[in-house]
Amino acid sequence: MSRFDQIYRKVALTIAGNSAVERLLSEQGKGLAGRFVAGDTPAQAIEAIHKLARSGILHNMDLLGEFVSDPASANANADAVLQMLNEMHAAGIRPYNSIKLSALGQGQQVNGHDLGESNARRIVARAKEFGGFINLDMEDHTRVDITLATFRRLAEEFGHAHVGTVLQSYLYRSEEDLRSLEDLRPNLRIVKGAYLEPATVAMQNKPDIDAAYRRLVYEHLKAGHYCNVATHDHHIIYDVMHFALAYGIPKSQFEFQMLYGVREDFQKELAAQGYTVRSYIPYGTEWYGYYSRRIAERPQNVMFVLRGLL
């Protein structure tokens, strides 16, 4: 990214972490978050699923919330995800959901077990019962090791058809992590990364991040594994299309994933061309952290917020 984009991103995420700014946006910005968040309830989220399905776009549901510090909240979050799986199944929808292990008690020990992993196991088991899939979201760099270890155990138990995880191209370690997971034949979601990470662990320049992104996707596809190409960058999307054609990789081996409310026309265009397109659909009341990262991604999003507030 340019020097301006680097400064903008750092400032935006720093400001978003200010308690006064959080109070202001939490009080006045919820309506604006509707651009990126499907609603507060499972019913509203399911309505969004049906709307996208009419355009040939699939879903990836995400109950908002992260970094809880007590077991009761973690278990409540897990129960809420299980409720969503039940309601999706009842509505005739194959569950495909993302979960954040930090919202499920990751790092908290209960009866000698990591609570985040125990709750994730309950969720993946229910999803498998319904023929569904659970993606373990990746968070900041301090949680990569524990998340990948949890993924390995769940993938060995439930199989790659029912659980996957995420690699972030801006982390220097991600190519090594990709190879370490090779034996699992993993279903991976490749993203650039949305957290404010130090230069000691993460690339800071867009050309480097983009090049690393392509390497991760290409290596994963060439190995014959399923790849979720999660980006709005049309240059990368077109490059992946050409790469797949050049290497004879079928459309059934990858999909494009984008965020709910972002580049919707482009999502519909790709779906119309016969590509699998999946929209990452957040829902729930804990929208502030997710929303602030969307603001930090593009300067244009700040103008959207300011117009709404004024």
From TrEMBL:
* Domain of life the protein comes from: Bacteria
Enzyme Commission no: 1.5.5.2
Q: Which residues form a coiled coil?
A: none
Q: Where is the Proline dehydrogenase domain?
A: 46-305
Cofactor (UniProt): FAD
What is the main EC category here?
oxidoreductase
Keyword entries, A-Z? FAD, Flavoprotein, Nucleotide-binding, Oxidoreductase, Proline metabolism
Recorded metabolic or biological pathway in which this protein acts: Amino-acid degradation; L-proline degradation into L-glutamate; L-glutamate from L-proline: step 1/2
Which Gene3D superfamilies does the UniProt entry name for this protein?
3.20.20.220
Q: Which reaction does it catalyse?
A: L-proline + a quinone = (S)-1-pyrroline-5-carboxylate + a quinol + H(+)
Q: What residue intervals traverse the membrane?
A: none
| Record-linked PANTHER family | PROLINE DEHYDROGENASE 1, MITOCHONDRIAL, PROLINE OXIDASE
Name of the protein in question: proline dehydrogenase
Provide the species name.
Deinococcus lacus
For this protein's source organism, the top of the classification is: Bacteria, Thermotogati, Deinococcota, Deinococci, Deinococcales
